[in-house]
Write a sequence for this structure.
């Protein structure tokens, strides 16, 4: 199984400041179709997960442009350009290149 | 409006069975791969099972293979998860998700005597 490792596990941020979250996979997530199957989700307190980014850097409709993703192969980063209070929660990365689809352990972001 | 609504979970005794349903509307269900993802209390997300749009590609996590069965009814815009031989380790919030884009609110399954 592909192991997803997120760092840090917890992050305290100041509103208006940037934040950077890391996700590493045990194997390359580059598919032979040329796409890289790395997803980012945010689970706000008491809510279901919501998709933020797919294929490393594509924002799901409705996701603010302060969220951006980058990376390739096995190393990926989610950046929040200016953190807002509503961004608190747990951020998960997930690989979608082959089953079993696996999630990272999550990064808790708090203000 | 997109809706993804899981049926009520509940309390099940160890070794027991339970069938979860997920009713959807507001999107073309027959084109979506559907997933079940669970989250044990205070823990992270764990993918459980997936079924593609035509039901000819079904996947299970090792932790549930042989005990859980996923199915779907495109005419009813619904996906199901039949769970058997339940143990305490299956206690979790179970989420239904379309293509990991569209998520339900989750339903709590508690396995306890």
């Amino acid at each position: 199984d592909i192991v997803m490792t997120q760092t840090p596990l917890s992050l305290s941020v100041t509103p208006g400041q940037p934040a950077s979250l890391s996700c590493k996979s045990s194997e390359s997530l580059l598919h032979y179709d040329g796409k890289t199957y790395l997803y980012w989700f945010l689970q706000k307190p008491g809510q279901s997960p919501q998709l933020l980014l797919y294929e490393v850097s594509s924002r799901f409709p409705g996701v603010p442009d302060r969220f951006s993703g980058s990376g390739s192969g096995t190393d990926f980063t989610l950046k929040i350009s200016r953190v807002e209070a509503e961004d608190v929660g747990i951020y998960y990365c997930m690989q979608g290149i082959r089953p079993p689809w696996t999630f990272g352990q999550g990064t808790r972001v708090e203000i | 409006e997109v809706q993804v609504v899981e049926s009520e979970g509940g309390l099940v005794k160890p070794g027991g069975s339970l069938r979860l349903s997920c009713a959807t509307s507001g999107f073309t269900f027959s084109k979506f791969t559907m997933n079940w993802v669970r989250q044990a209390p205070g823990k992270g997300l764990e993918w459980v099972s997936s079924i593609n749009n035509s039901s000819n590609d079904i996947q299970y996590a090792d932790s549930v293979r042989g005990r859980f069965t996923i199915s779907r009814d495109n005419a009813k815009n619904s996906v199901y998860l039949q769970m058997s031989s339940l143990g305490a380790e299956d206690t979790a919030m179970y989420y239904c998700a379309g293509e990991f884009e569209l998520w339900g609110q989750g339903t709590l399954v508690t396995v306890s005597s």
Observations:
- Chain B has a mean pLDDT of 97.
- The longest strand of chain B covers residues 18-25.
